Amino acid sequence: DAMVIQNPRYQVTQFGKPVTLSCSQTLNHNVMYWYQQKSSQAPKLLFHYYDKDFNNEADTPDNFQSRRPNTSFCFLDIRSPGLGDAAMYLCATSRIDSLSYEQYFGPGTRLTVT
Amino acid sequence: SQKIEQNSEALNIQEGKTATLTCNYTNYSPAYLQWYRQDPGRGPVFLLLIRENEKEKRKERLKVTFDTTLKQSLFHITASQPADSATYLCAPQGSGTYKYIFGTGTRLKVLA
User: Fold this and answer.
1) What's the rounded Cα separation, in Å, for the pair B76 and B14?
2) Which of B99, B101, B107 to mutate to probe the A interface, most A CBs <10 Å?
3) Mind listing the pLDDT tens digit of every residue in chain B (112 residues)?
4) Under CATH, what is the fold of the domain A4-113?
5) Which residue in chain A is spatially nearest to B106 when comparing CA positions?
């Protein structure tokens, strides 16, 4: 089945130690998103790619970077994780040339910072 | 700034009743509004989309309304079941954009 895959599902990192989260999709969607979601809060958009065009949200900390080497893969790099970066990180895709614009989410990566 | 509000308190209802969830927005004129379901520890799952020129949309036991005058969407689950227990998120979307602002969601619990 076509889907959005995130690895790992759970990630533990130390304060200040760089970490990379990965996302892959078999839907061939042209837009990929990264969201941060903390407990009982709304998913917060960090950035998105429209094809290879990168779009950063104004309030996304510089500590967060992203790469999209091809259509299928997207990475979230946290250069120096702080305790406040502990959250669920959600990857999503969307096919913008459709009429529905629905997003397909991966299962998320739960990041713990010790 | 744009603001999306959903009932932050959990909604408990008895099995078989209709659940009604509210999504209000301010400083925003969305062309579309989507509803998602999120189970604990998982990513949201798309349920329904309604356009600004549609008053109502139905899918099986789900019904969504969109009132652009009141700046509000209502999400109904009829004949609710314990399996409907989850958090429901609304996500308005502006015309010409593929970015979404999510509400904080309303946690629904259907009691057997």
Assistant:
1) 14
2) B99
3) 788 999 878 999 999 999 999 999 988 888 889 999 999 999 999 999 999 999 899 999 999 999 999 999 999 999 999 999 999 999 998 877 778 889 999 999 999 9
4) Immunoglobulin-like (2.60.40)
5) A40
